[in-house]
Structures are given as C-alpha cells and as structure tokens.
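Ticket #164: bound-state structure for zinc ion.
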Amino acid sequence: MTAPHQDAPSAGWLDHARTELARAGHRAGGARTAVLEQLAGAGCCQTAQEIHDLLRGTDRRRVGIASVYRVLDQLVGLHLVTKIEFGDGVSRFEAAQPGGHHHHHVVCTGCGRVDPFEDRDLERAIAGSGRRTGFEVTDHDVVLRGRCPDCAGSRGAGEVSPPG
Ligand SMILES: [Zn+2]
Ligand SMILES: [Zn+2]
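RESOLUTION: The complex was predicted; output attached.
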C-alpha cells in the first residue's frame, strides 16, 4: 500500500475542525461544509467575498454571502479560523492550525497582493521578546508592507539601467 499523495497540508485541519464543530453541537450543514472545504484547500487568507465567489465558481453549491459570514464568525469563535485585518477595511480569514503552526503576511501597498511567509528565526525572536515582557503572550501579529515585484518593477522601469 502506498501512502496517498499529500497535496493538502490542511487535511488535518479539516478533520480537526469537523471534530470541534461536532463537539460544540453544530451539525454539518451544506454552507458550513462548503466553507470548511474552501478554507482547508486555501494556502493563505481569503475575504468572505472571495470565499463566496470561489464557491459559486464551483457551481455545485449555492451558498449566500450572509451564510459565508455567519459560518466564518462561528469558526472564528471556535478558534478554528484566524481573522486577519490589514487595515484596508476588509477582513480576511484562514484556517488556524491546531498545533499553532502559522505563517505571516507581506502585503503590497500598490496592488493589494498578499503573500504568506514563514520564518523560524522570527518566531524565536518574538518568543524571546514575549518572555522578557513578563506577559503570558499567547498570540502575535506580523505584517510586512511594501511593493510586490510587479509594482516595484513597473514603477522603477524608467529609472533602472540595464546591466552591462
Ligand atoms: Zn495566510
Ligand atoms: Zn508567528
């Protein structure tokens, strides 16, 4: 027997989320299942609108935007989903891994592109800072802002001289 190819790192999260929802007394409804699966398959954060549009694109499920918001609120309340604010007035959501494994984000101030990144040294440094505060630190937010390669490239196109 060969192990199945693991394309979805969040497969464990999906099981975890289902278990926690059942424990909290929520039955697996159509909207909830659809949103859960969409979140599990996403590599990074999405807005409620994006989740709604992606579900609609699959054509097999009709989930209203109000249902998407309601399910997301529920999942955030159960700490199964992290709500992320970049200060642009739009909330984004992503699966919260049960072991605390997480990434952070770099946001383009030009086009709004969001990329995830992980940095173990950064995590260690933050843990050290946390200990020195004397607080019992349970969470942290890190957001890097700047221009993505596309925006930086188009802006500086006239200024950069070709090599050689
Ligand atoms: Zn992310
Ligand atoms: Zn971190």
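RESOLUTION NOTES: The radius of gyration is 19 Å.
TICKET STATUS: resolved
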